Amino acid sequence: MSVVKVLEGSEAVALAVKACRPQVISAYPISPQTHIVESLAKMAADGDLDSQYVRVESEFSAASVISGASTAGSRAYTASSSQGLLLMTEVLYASAGMRLPFVITGVNRQISAPISIQVDHQDTISLRDSGVIQFYVESNQEAYDTHMAAFKIAEDANILLPVMVCMDGWILTHSYEQISLLAQEAVDGFLPPFQPAHFLDVRDPKTWGSYAEENVLMEFKYAIQNAMEYGKNRIKEIFRELAQITGRDHGGLIEAYRTHDAEMVLLAMGSVVGTTKDAIDQLRMKGKKVGLIKIRCYRPFPHEDIWEAVKGARIVGVMEANFSFGSEGAVAMDLKARLCGRPNAPLVVDFIAGLGGREVNMKVITELVEIMEKASSESICVMEPQWVGLDQTILSQGAQS
Amino acid sequence: MEISIGAVVKGGTSLEYKTGSWRDQRPVLDMEKCKVCGQCESVCPDSAIHVFDEEYVIDYDYCKGCGLCAYECSAGAIEMIKEEK
What we know:
Chain A is of the alpha/beta class.
C-alpha cells in the first residue's frame, strides 16, 4: 500500500532516502539542496532515522565522509549543489575509481561567477567524466522513485559506482506536489541491505585504490567503462522492477515522447521536459510532427536508445542548460559524436536555453521548433550553438563598457 | 598486480616500494649529540626513523632524504650529506 501526501520536493527526496536506510549521511548546507539534508537532520534528531548523521565543514569533507563510510561497508548518502558539487570533484573521481556505491542528490544550480542561486545544469554536467552515474528527473515523484533505484544500481556487484540523482533546484526541490510514498516493507523488499565484497576491518587491513603503475592503470579505467556499459541494461531492469512495485513507469535510460513518426525531435532533461511535452502536444494539434527524447540517464550515455528514437527524424534540437566555453553544449557534443557515422543521421542543432534559471516556456520551445523546421526544410546545418533569448540591449551595454 | 575491483589489495603494499633509492642526500645521525627526544621520528613524512634499543635508527630503504629531521633536530645531531653511489 502506498500513501499519497502533498510534499515539498526536498522532503519527498528525504523520505525516499530514509526509506533506503543509509547507515551514514553527511551534510553541508548549500542552496537549493538545503531542505533535503535539513529534513533528514530533523528525522535523525527525532529518532525516526537510524543513520549516523555527520555534519561536516565543507563539501569536500561531505564527499570524503561518505567515501570512507562506503569503504567501511555502509550505505551512504549526501546532497549538494553548484560550488558544493565542484568542491567534491576530486573525491568523486577517486570514489568512482575505488568503486564505492554511495548516492548523492545533485540539486542543480548555476556556477559562479556572477553569483546566482538559480537553476541550470552546469554543476552536474561538469562532473560527467568522473565515473559517477547520473540521472536527471522531470518531477518530484520521479525524484522520489529514482532515489530508490539509485542505491540498488550503485550497489549492483557488476556496477559498483557512485550514483548522482540530479534534480532542478527550486523548480523541483521547493515545489509542493502530490507524492505517492512506498510502504517501508515494499522498499525493503526491493532494496536489501548493502553486502560489500570488501570492507575496512582493522583485523584484515586493506587498501582501496592502491598504487597502479602504467602497466595496469589503463585496465582499471577500462573496468569503469565496462561497468558503465553493463549498467545500461541493468539500469533498465532495475527501473522495470521498481515500476512493478510502484505502478509508475518513468521509462528506461530515456523516455521517447511522440517520436514514432516525428520529423523533428527535441532532446531535453530535467524539469523543462514537462513544459516541452505540453508544447509538443500543442504543435501536434497544428499538424507538426514533433517528438521529444527525455534523457533520464546521462552517464552512461544512452546513444543506442536515442538512435532508435531519432533514426527516422530529419533534425534533432538539443535543449540544454550547460555550456562548454570555447565549444558548445555537452549534450549536443555527446549526441553528435554518437550520431556520426550512422546512416542518414539527422541534423543536430544545439540550443543553449535556461542558463541561470532563464525561463524556457512553451513560447520559447515553439520558436525553437520553428528554427528546426526552417533548418531541416532548407537542409541547413546549424554549426554554431544557438543561445536562446539573449537580450541584445544588455549585450550592447556590455560591449561598450 | 591483478585487477581487483576498486584496486582493493591487502594493506601494507607500499613496503614493497623501496623509495630510498630516490634520495640525493642522506641524513647521518650523531649519537653523541642525540638526546633521544623523538622530534625526528615525529616529523619524518615517510616513517623512516624508528626507536630501537633506546637509539634512533634511520631506515635508508624508505628515507627519501628530505632533510626535515635535520632541520627540526634541536640538538643538531643530524647532518645531511651528499648521497654517492
